[in-house]
Predict the 3D structure of the following.
Amino acid sequence: MTISATTQGIKPGVCTSTNRPANPFDGQVIYMTDVDQTAVWDGSTWVVLAPIAGGRNVIINGDFKVWQRGNARTYMNAGSYLADRWCTHLYQNAGHERVAGRATQYAIRVTSSSTAENGGGTRMWLTQKVESLNSYRLRSQQVTLSFWVRFSAASATSSTATPYGNFTGVIGYYTSNTDSATGTTDADTATSLTLTNGSLPTTWTKYSVTGTCPSNLNNIHATFGFSGLGNTSASSNFWYEVAEVQLEVGAVATPFEFEDYGTTLAKCQRYYEKTYDIGTNPGTATYNGMWTNGSTSNVSNNIIVPVRFKVEKRASPTVTAYRPSDGVSGSWGYGRSGANGSAAATFDLIATSGCRAYFDCGAAWVAAVPECHWVASAEL
Amino acid sequence: MYKIAQTLSNEMIVRVADNAWIPSDPANSDYQQYLAWVAEGNTAEEWSPDATV
């Protein structure tokens, strides 16, 4: 039997949407790199397939749809979070904000900013650190980080003498530290992808990089940013945007794994949650969503507030109180027989499931109605 | 800057900048940062509820 090279036989499985096999066979599967889709030939047309098995993506909120802390541009210190699970990396301040995405609804924009904000400069790093319980399964495995990125200009320039250097997408491997220490130390080893400054893409482009995890891996992170310090003279005059970040086992970057909003939110709440509505920033003056009940103060004038978390936390979290009437941190309001007021909130017995809180309403054994907002953070 | 609060049951750390309450959990990254602050030679003062309200 003679098989024609152009009309029969096995065709390449990787192509673009405009360069698909001309004579496919029934059941042939292709992956189109430009649209990030997999399709099967059903005998008459290409049918786009649903993404392959779920649970592949180690990254949480890789499509930047959950922003419990707010989504307006905020210039943050190293280690601070705005989009859920994404923070500025060690020593690197940066402005983060939510913007329109590519195939997904949202992306994150990372900006340089004014000299005054930057201080000594910034590499504009963005990172997600994966907790150890979700990293151990990657030990000795090949992993691939994929992401879409675009830049405001092909060149990242600086008003100072120090250039930004090249842009990197990094898989970082922690072996000597675990979880919380990832906030104060950098990864022990890393695998990087470099995009040359001067040739940065200004339209959405997908990149991937593959590495092998050490056998003693404790934590893994995905990090983006420049290799050198930069510093610009005007706010937001240079930026990059990242969307659809995926870190998965294997040497192939499969299509981004879409996840329903509720699932992603619950995953994020393992690390951070609040009493406020999802669209209300912590510290906002509002009674909506606050914790309250009919209480009685004890012999020490304290109203006891039982704090239960919506989702069990990664570790005993840091907890912050907010007063609903004006959004001020550290205190709660109350109404009781004979007086209304506010007092400093005290938290103790903090555990991964909840904690106790109390505050002084100025009288013992009186009926009282507490007004409480709080946030709990167990980020890495 | 941090302060130490003696609560009804245990000792807690209060981060002054945002009045956040930090448990003494080694897995808490804020506690790690507090330990680093102490290691630099700093000492936390006693927390008072009057200073917060």
In short: The helical segments of chain B are 29-39, 49-52.
